[in-house]
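Pipeline run #58 for the internal structure catalog. This entry was flagged by the ingest filter as a single-chain record with no existing model, so it goes straight to prediction. Upstream metadata was stripped on purpose; only the residue string is passed forward. Reviewer on rotation: M.T. Logging verbosity set to normal.
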Amino acid sequence: MNALVVNGASIATDPDGFLKDLTDWSPAVAEQLATSSGITLCDSHWQLIELVQRYYQQFGLSPAMRPLIKYAKLELGADKGTSLYFLKHFPDSPAKSLSKIAGLPRPDNCL
């Protein structure tokens, strides 16, 4: 079993680090997931985490990159609704990394 230990509690994850139970998510879990991905969260990261969580609440799925960028443009403005902005914050695979850190399921079409 894969697990993440946060504040002494063991939280089940899949082999890629996505939470098995989305209700296990908390800001402390996000910090731990980000750290394990080599990311130090700052205010702009949290803004994107909240954005992807709103997307999930609204549409019931984790966004792939293209819909995520469109949604960010609408919600945050053109300056933040770009692939480069997301890549700056989540260098690997932004939609996948962001969904993982936000405690959401893996986006369907992300490798």
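catalog note: The radius of gyration is 13 Å.
catalog note: The longest strand covers residues 2-6.
status: ready for reviewer M.T.
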